[in-house]
Amino acid sequence: MAITIENEPGDIAPVYSDLTYTLSSTNSGQTNFKFVAVVKNAAGTTLAKLKAPVYAGTSYGVFNLTRILQNYVTFDFTQATLHPGKCTNSFIAYSVEFGEEYGGTEYLNLTSDTGKYAWNGLFSKWDSELISDYQINTFPSTSVKFLTTIRRRRVTREQYDYLYFLRGGGGIPDRIEVVAYNAAGSTTTSQIKQTFITSAKDEYLLRVAAGVANLNQIAAANLYSGTAGSIVPVGTVYYTIQAKYITDAGTEAYRFDIVEECSKYSHRVLYFLNRLGGFETLRCSMLNRDVYSVERKQLKRNTYGFTGTAYGRDTAAHGIASYATTKSRKVILNTDFLNDLEWQWVDELISSPVVYLDGNIPVNITNTQVEVFDLNDGPQQLRIEVEFTEPEILQNI
Fold this sequence. Notes:
eight-stranded antiparallel sheet; seven-stranded mixed sheet; Immunoglobulin-like; 3 domains; mainly beta; single chain
């Protein structure tokens, strides 16, 4: 008996895209034949045991593991992200043992595939995306992208932001370089230490500070060069962030433009999980309003009783009383005018399953659609409605 793995997912792959194995067997013609797949995590614990008959019209078996493995990844986010950190909740290392069943007997682990890794990303069904677009493998290279679909961002000096990246087995950057440019074109270069340089699987997906606010909080002990508190100095017009090994580039030089918005409204920021598994931010610096809705359950109470020997109505008692009251809160937000790049990117915000308001308040976006504008439409703003995920339970009487 022999089973052959005909096709398999890449060693590193996005878990929300198809993770498909195609198998063949010398016994596929046996009566009631089934292929068997046993999925295990890095510790060898069985996550699932699957069986599949021969695919109709062929002699092959097919297993798609995406729905199984999705259950074992979440996300990694803290507003105070500074120097590079591991994303231990955002990936799973797994292996698969393949066998077969016929004649009422299972024959397990006839062949296996080990050393696999899936992270909480999703490749577009409509665009051509490859793991090589995002995984650092060789130096020098400036074509590898950070885990975001927008290639340039705008931030204020008070704004936190982030970049996530895939560090490959053959490409291990040891620093993150930040180059700040002022209006005259002069530069200030800082290098942040990247200490996750082993081949351990849990070091493949990393995140680093990318906003002015969190970059300037990085301590001197975490820098190879540069001045703590002034990685992005006052007077900086824009800056770039790039993963490097000593002097060799490993990624694109990702650009952040600094904008100073003058607004009479309070500044709010949404932090959201993008489809590639990283968190990004969107400023909402124009009019924002809180909207409250209340749900009450009520009953009719007896307002009559004795006061001493006198019987009558208690005028201070509630005849109709609320015994269960909950208050829900929404916030209506408005951005400043978005540029063309940002309009092509806001669909990821609207569809994001994980969103925080101001970095620490979990909310859900209630918009169900977004109309995308471009330069030909003139300046346009985006209106976003978010709802707090927990209602408040008020006093009962």
